[in-house]
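Lab notebook, bench 4. The sequencing result for the construct came back, and we need a structural model before the next group meeting so we can plan mutations. Quick request posted to the team channel:

Model the 3D structure of this chain.
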Amino acid sequence: MNTLVINKEDLRHNIEQIKSYANKSGKDDKGNPVKIIAVVKSNAYGLGLVEYTKFLIDNGISFFAVSTVDEAIKLRKAGIESEILMLSSTAIEEEVRMLIENNIIITIGSKEDIEIVDRIGKEKKEKIRAHLKIDTGFGRYGFIYNKTDEIIEAIKTSKNINIEATYTHFSISFFNEKYTKLQFERFIQVIEILRLNEIDTGMLHVCNSSAFLKYPNMHLNAVRIGSAFLGRLSFQNSIGLKKIGYLEAEVAEIKDLPKNFNIGYSNTYKTKKPTKVAIVSCGYMNGINVVNNKDMFRTIDKLRYIVRDTKDFFKKQAIYVKIGNYNCKVLGRIGTYHITCDITNKKIKIGDKVLIQVNPKFVDSNIRREYR
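Done. Here's the predicted structure in token form:
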């Protein structure tokens, strides 16, 4: 049975490093420590939504953010009472009602959002908690930054919404400093205009994990941390974060192959001599050799990596897994659910544990998660 193993001590280390780095950036403009909003979307980046969130709570994190209604409701059904922000705005009334009924903080990013939330607030005779989203150049959720008149009118006509925070999302903070600074400047300009029009913008947050590490001057009142907790970023981190998550499998079969024998699809590898191999029942669908493309937060179709693997086979560095005390080279192409490892002259037997470095968010959700 395959298991995604999460080392609790390493994860705890990352949490403490991130908290310490946030504290070093100083106090916000109100004299308060910078708040950490833990982003637990996409099944908590593969670590298991509920268990991971509870682990963060046990280690001093009290504010969370999700991307879907299902994620938010799942946390509430698990008995988690912490503050939860819905990062995706929605003008679908059924979804808005479900979020409000479960005490989820709404994101409002359009006049349609505001109209629905305000109407529901009037029905309930209460102010609905919300964060205002500004689109500074991502082209997704939020009011477009240069339409401040529209933002002001929509907010001032609403009577039943309590804007507790205002935020934006950087599109390329891991790579492009110039554009990130432009987005930040656009955001600050919007905030200044809103405040001049007597709109309370509340807590401000713009930094995702990459921006949090690269631009401490942009921390403002709060930061949104997702992949940094896992220590998995597209650039070298400066605060000693450890990579979280590895796949544990077992040797399922051992066989001796003759010289000039093909291994794997497309015949991309042929043995150069008699070779003893171990077959391990895990592959692309378990996240092996699936990489995060420039820190984009989406699950890329794993078939794409099969194509890439074929084209780049002779260019890529060798892939190794650990079986017992041995580092064993993976031979041939990685299959959907199988890999073949060279164990020539190594004392390895069926059932031996195999440890494989993987990015947890690419590991099939059906694989068991275990915190150790």
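The domain at 7-230 is CATH 3.20.20.10 (TIM Barrel).
Will bring this to the meeting.
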